[in-house]
Structure formats: structure tokens, C-alpha cells
Design goal:
By secondary structure, this protein is α/β, with parallel strands linked by helices. It has three domains: 3-84 and 222-249, Rossmann fold (3-Layer(aba) Sandwich); 87-221, Rossmann fold; 268-373, Homeodomain-like (Arc Repressor Mutant, subunit A). The protein is built from 17 helices and ten strands. The strands form three sheets. The protein has a six-stranded mixed beta sheet. Helix 11 crosses helix 12 (287-294) and helix 14 crosses helix 17 (363-373). It is elongated. The two termini are 36 Å apart.
Length: 374
């Protein structure tokens, strides 16, 4: 199993399926690093095995040790009965979560050895699907952290996070690696979540809670995987045929913690100002409207935004308008003039000027680029 949380979840799911009606004796076996012998499993004379195996070789060896069905819980594409988390939908859910927080850039980071090649590909494909649909081009990286360290000399990630302008969302394929990266960001002077929001996957309580800051993480349906895998074992032992296509189960919800705050500003007044701007963009509001709502002086708001967001309130308002416009252009068939009005621009000409200042292309060019990519 990939981590204790996954193993415990699968076993819990199997036991839930058993309830009081199925009398099975369960034994667990952790395959040692370096390719283990399966002699212990052969000695058990197991009737069936639920196995997290990513390699065809290990599955073939296991087949020689077990006389009954083998259900895999890794998305390998081996053509064997498989129940596993839907990694494509996991990627989509993570990208959508960070984009809804207001991220301008998305970066994904995986450990090639963790989930396996096929699962990793599906995860990053899901991220790309969601991000491109909303007008964002994600950056995909892989890593092999050196022990418990992760420095700029080891990998280009930290340097990239520094160089990207705007709010950055970093998706990490597992909580252990995310824990290491969060610590590395603190050591490198990169603030989490102010500079980078980190969202991991697996919701391992130990790694998520002991990270500084604590990690937001997408829960995976390990218990449901175990329950469904047990159902397949029960069916096979009863003589029923098993599906050859993988059964992929949707991920759970994101468990929010400190690494992904509600906004990228810690100042409560700035958060309130940004929320008001978001809610009233379509009304063509001005900064004076924000000041009236907050009962605050212009100078005070300017200082707070400079400290929290490193830009003026006016620049923030324009940024929010352009961000909404990008999403509407990428995900709807609305006319550009209608989009301009819905984002609070006074005219299509003004919309085009401001959009080009932020995106380095006109709204029509942005739409054409997105359509050619789709």
C-alpha cells in the first residue's frame, strides 16, 4: 500500500464488507524494498489477495503463489481486475480547488515511484484538463527528494516558485513529499500560503498535521476501494467472472488546512475588501465603493494592500476583473462585449486595453489560443 493511511483505509473497507455475514481471515504483508520474496504468501495458501502492485512482474510472481483471485488496487493498466482511486478526477478536483482560491499559476509535482506511471499520467492529465478549460497552462514537474531535504540545488521547483508572478498553486501527489516541500519553502523564505498555496493528496493525518503550515489535502477513497475490492473477491469465489477494465472510484473532498487559506492575504480587512470586489465586479465598482463599504480611509487601505498583496487596491480590482474575464472567455461562448460588462469594464475598448496589459494579448487572441488548444 502507498502509505499507512491507504493501507488502513483498504483494510477497513474490507472489514466493512465482511460485516457479520462473511467469515474471512485477513493477513497483511508488506513487500520489502528491493523486490521481495512472495514465499510467505505462498505458505499462507491464501484463497485470494488484494494487492497494490504496479509492476507486471510482481503480479505474475503473485499468481504463482495464490490459487484464487487477485484484485489490484493500483492503476497499472495490466488488464487484471482492478479497483483504484480515479486519479484523473483527483487532478481535476485539485486544480479546480486552487483556481477557485484565485491562483494565477498551477504547478504539479509528482514522485515517479509513488503512484506508478499510469496513475501519475492520469493525475496530471486531469490537472491539465481543468486548468486549460479555465485558461491556465499548468506546469508539470517530477522529483525525487534527497532524504528529508529539498533545496534549490536539488531541483528547479523553488526557483520556479520564486519566478512566477501572481498567486501560485502547487499540487503535490502525496502528503509526505508536500510536508518536505512546505518545510523547504519556509527555509527558502517562500511564504505558504501567501506566496504559494500547497495542496497535497491522500490526507495522511500525520504528515498533514505536523507540517508547518498544516497541509490542505484531497482525501482519497481508500475505504471505498477496499470495500469494492472485497466485493470482487466475494464474487470471484462464488464463481462469477470479474471485469477486466479498472473500476475507478471518485476522490473525496479537500480537507482545508493552513497551506491553502481562503485567500492569499492574511489581513482580514484585505480579505473583506477582496470579497466585496469579487461580489460586485459586474457592477463596475470603484475603490471609493470599497472604502464606503469598509468605512476605511484610502491611505489605510493602500497601506494594507501594499503589505498583504504587494499592489494597490486599484491594481487588485483590475486583476480580479481580468481573471474573471479569462475564465469566461475560456469556459463560455459569451460575446466579448458581454464579458466586458459582466466584469465591470466600462467599454469593450477599455476591456481590451486592460486585458492586454495583464495577459500580453487581446481578449480575441486569448479566445483563439484557447480554442486551438481545445
Amino acid at each position: 500500500m502507498r502509505g499507512q493511511t491507504a493501507a488502513v483505509g483498504v483494510i477497513r473497507g474490507v472489514r466493512t464488507f465482511m460485516g457479520n455475514s462473511v467469515d474471512w481471515h485477513i493477513r497483511t504483508y508488506v513487500i520489502p524494498a528491493g523486490g521481495a520474496s512472495f514465499d510467505a504468501i505462498a505458505d499462507w495458501q491464501a484463497d485470494a489477495v488484494i494487492h497494490n502492485g504496479r509492476l507486471a512482474e510482481s503480479h505474475e510472481r503473485l499468481c504463482h503463489c495464490v490459487r484464487g483471485p487477485i484484485i489490484n488496487t493500483a492503476d497499472t493498466g495490466l488488464g487484471v481486475p482492478t479497483v483504484c482511486p480515479d486519479m484523473r478526477r483527483a487532478g481535476q478536483a485539485m486544480a479546480e480547488y486552487l483556481l477557485n482560491l484565485g491562483c494565477d499559476h498551477l504547478v504539479s509535482l509528482l514522485r515517479p515511484v509513488y503512484w506508478g506511471t499510469r496513475a501519475n499520467q492520469r493525475w496530471q492529465a486531469g490537472i491539465t484538463d481543468c486548468a486549460q478549460r479555465l485558461g491556465v497552462e499548468p506546469i508539470h514537474l517530477s522529483c525525487r527528494p534527497h532524504g528529508n531535504t529539498f533545496t534549490e540545488d536539488d531541483h528547479p521547483l523553488l526557483g520556479m516558485l520564486r519566478s512566477l508572478g501572481g498567486a501560485v498553486g502547487l499540487m503535490v501527489c502525496d502528503d509526505e513529499t508536500a510536508h518536505t516541500i512546505a518545510n523547504a519553502c519556509v527555509d527558502a523564505g517562500i511564504s505558504v500560503p501567501d506566496d504559494v498555496a500547497i495542496l497535497s493528496m491522500g490526507n495522511d493525518e500525520y504528515h498533514c498535521s505536523t507540517s508547518n503550515p498544516s497541509l490542505s489535502s484531497l482525501g482519497l477513497p481508500h475505504e471505498q476501494v477496499g470495500h469494492r475490492a472485497a466485493a470482487l473477491v466475494h464474487a470471484a469465489l462464488a464463481g462469477e467472472s470479474l471485469p477486466t477494465k479498472p473500476i475507478r472510484i471518485a476522490p473525496l473532498q479537500v480537507v482545508p488546512r493552513a497551506s491553502c487559506s481562503v485567500s492569499f492575504a492574511e489581513d482580514e480587512t484585505v480579505k473583506q475588501a477582496m470579497a466585496y470586489m469579487e461580489d460586485h465586479l459586474h457592477e463596475g465598482i470603484r475603490i471609493d465603493d470599497v472604502l464606503d463599504h469598509l468605512q476605511l480611509s484610502r491611505k489605510s487601505l493602500e497601506v494594507r494592500f501594499r503589505e498583504a498583496r504587494n499592489r494597490t487596491p486599484h491594481a487588485e480590482l483590475q486583476y480580479l476583473r481580468v481573471r474573471r474575464a479569462k475564465r469566461l472567455i475560456a469556459s463560455t461562448n459569451m460575446g466579448l462585449d458581454d464579458i466586458a460588462l459582466s466584469c465591470g469594464f466600462g467599454s469593450g475598448a477599455r476591456f481590451s486595453v486592460v486585458f492586454r496589459q495583464h495577459v500580453d494579448m487581446t481578449p480575441s487572441q486569448f479566445r483563439k489560443q484557447h480554442q486551438s488548444r481545445a
